[in-house]
Amino acid sequence: MDVSEQSQALLEFFKALADANRLKIVGLLAREELAVEQIAAILDLRPSTVSNHLSYLTHVGLVSARPQSYYNVYRLELGALHEMARSLLSQETLQAAAEGVDVDAYDRKVLKNYLGPDGRFKQLPMQFKKMQAVLRYVVNVFEVGRQYTEKEVNELLGQYHEDTAQLRRELVEQGLMAREGGGGKYWRI
Amino acid sequence: MDVSEQSQALLEFFKALADANRLKIVGLLAREELAVEQIAAILDLRPSTVSNHLSYLTHVGLVSARPQSYYNVYRLELGALHEMARSLLSQETLQAAAEGVDVDAYDRKVLKNYLGPDGRFKQLPMQFKKMQAVLRYVVNVFEVGRQYTEKEVNELLGQYHEDTAQLRRELVEQGLMAREGGGGKYWRI
DNA sequence: AAACTAATTCGACGTTCATCGAAATAATTC
DNA sequence: GAATTATTTCGATGAACGTCGAATTAGTTT
């Protein structure tokens, strides 16, 4: 299944259970199979309303219908429910919900405010989260897998702001770059 | 927690995740902590909208806020999420959603149609599900833990309908009563 | 064949709710 | 202290959705 399809299925699953009466229907079907008419009587709803709810739940795959004589008997699909619950326990499922969104939108907004037309920062932001956006931007001047002397680092950072020392220090603090213990060698993570 | 409170909490949990943008927020927070402004930029929403969503998610216990400098950083409460997912795997949780509903409403509706003013059935229903309602009603003339001869069974069932043989046979078929292998002893389950 | 029962579909109504802008609150920076 | 930044609250608006009644379809009983 595609990632966008997966997040779409997750959303529709929650929407299917986000109504009081639909949730009651699922609870009733967890006890025994029931026909539309029976559910309507129990919940004091019109059959057409219950039919709509069951149609929704069927579309999501939570219930299924079995024709018996001239009416339909609905049953709960426990497998689909458990599979959904289990996928909620995995980290990737939730992150997939945020797939396709523009995660760099905030960084761009910050850079637009602080970056001058000459490509230099007028001043470095005070706020932690904004400074992070700046650092994620300037770290791109360094290639991965290559070592730099402190002098080289300062020269490259100098095109962005005069306070190269602060930039260098925070890059290391944020874990975007690393420094060899005693010597002056830097490299990008 | 009370049963009705539990089903209420379950419903609000689903409603909290039944919105596309709220689901995306949860997905984003599954990757890293974020402030309101950042989420608003990423999802292209106004900060007030995001604040409302986060207020909802906080109320349900899915996220929590940590004040930093003069803004709030929100983080996902993985524990609450996993606890909810795990409870979905248990049978009792869903049945609790249908607690407090009138499960006998359909049976009463059927009995009202078939039961005469003298307490006897004018005729026995053809439909399976309606016959079940009748059987669940007539089985109450028998005490649990006591044995009856076939003659006693027929006399007790006779007050409801003349066709005691059918009633007796279906009571056993539906598992509401049991019969000793060779002899003529019956008892209620 | 006619009457009956169950379920679904469709259109309409009313409520809920997501979204926004404006105002208010609070904390920080210059 | 004044201006800035981030967040929250509140009222309004528009869209989404649950509910119902009427009409339709399908299957059953007599």
Which key features would you list for this structure?
elongated; DNA-binding; 3-stranded antiparallel sheet; 189 residues; alpha+beta; Arc Repressor Mutant, subunit A
> Would you identify the CATH architecture of the largest domain in chain A?
Orthogonal Bundle
The chain pair with the largest interface is: A-B, 48 and 48 residues
Poorly predicted runs of chain A are: none
CATH superfamily placement of the largest domain in chain A: Winged helix-like DNA-binding domain superfamily/Winged helix DNA-binding domain
Structural class of chain A: alpha+beta
In order across it, which strands form the biggest sheet of chain A?
A: 1-3-2
**pLDDT averaged over residues of chain A:** 94
What portion of the residues of chain A fall into strands of 2 or more residues? 5-15%
Give the helix proportion of chain A (percent range).
Answer: 55-70%
Which shape of chain A, going by the Cα principal axes? elongated
What count of structural domains of chain A?
Answer: 2
What is the fold-level CATH name, i.e. the topology of the largest domain in chain A? Answer: Arc Repressor Mutant, subunit A
Oligomer: homodimer
Q: SSE order of chain A in H/E notation? A: HHEHHEEHHHHEHHEE
- Radius of gyration of chain A from the CA trace? 28 Å
How many DSSP-defined strands of chain A? 6
Largest sheet of chain A: 3 strands, antiparallel
Number of helices of chain A: 10
CATH class assignment of the largest domain in chain A: Mainly Alpha
Report how far apart the termini of chain A are: 33 Å
